[in-house]
Amino acid sequence: MKGISDKGFRTVLLYGAGEVASMILTVLNETDGIPVEAVAVIDDNPEKQGKTIIHTPIVSSKHLDDKRVDGVIISSYSNHSIIYDKLKKRKYPESKILHFFD
């Protein structure tokens, strides 16, 4: 998490509303000294959209451009490549894409 704030990111979107997102949100919300806020979690599953995960709204990828954030953290292990390809296809700046799993 420290690496995210070291890059100057203060507000982020998570992409993938699963267990990894829960873990990241828990760390962000419960650890002092991490100056990063997750504004929302993007998920492509319509059944998850409109709900919350760790007090954070789950939204569709249509909101990607609506949110004024410093970047997106891909918070899915199993769908990492798919999400990355979707972001590239939308011409989301690569410098704003953070890979939780490298």
Structure description:
This protein is of the alpha/beta class. It has a single domain, classed as Rossmann fold (3-Layer(aba) Sandwich). Helices cover 26% and strands 24% of the residues. It has 3 helices and 6 strands, in the order αβαββββαβ. The longest helix has 12 residues, at 19-30. It is globular and about 35 Å long. 25% of the residues are buried.
CATH architecture: 3-Layer(aba) Sandwich
The figure for the number of domains is: 1
- The helix content is 25-40%
Main-sheet strand order equals: 3-4-2-1-5-6
Low-confidence stretches: none
Distance between the terminal alpha carbons, to the nearest Å?
A: 13 Å
Q: Overall mean pLDDT score?
A: 90
CATH topology: Rossmann fold
Structural class from helices and strands? alpha/beta
Shape: globular
> What integer value in Å does the Rg equal?
12 Å
Fraction of residues in β-strands: 15-25%
CATH class identity: Alpha Beta
N-to-C SSE series?
HEHEEEEHE
Q: CATH homologous superfamily?
A: NAD(P)-binding Rossmann-like Domain
Task: Specify the biggest β-sheet.
Answer: 6 strands, mixed
Count up the helices: 3
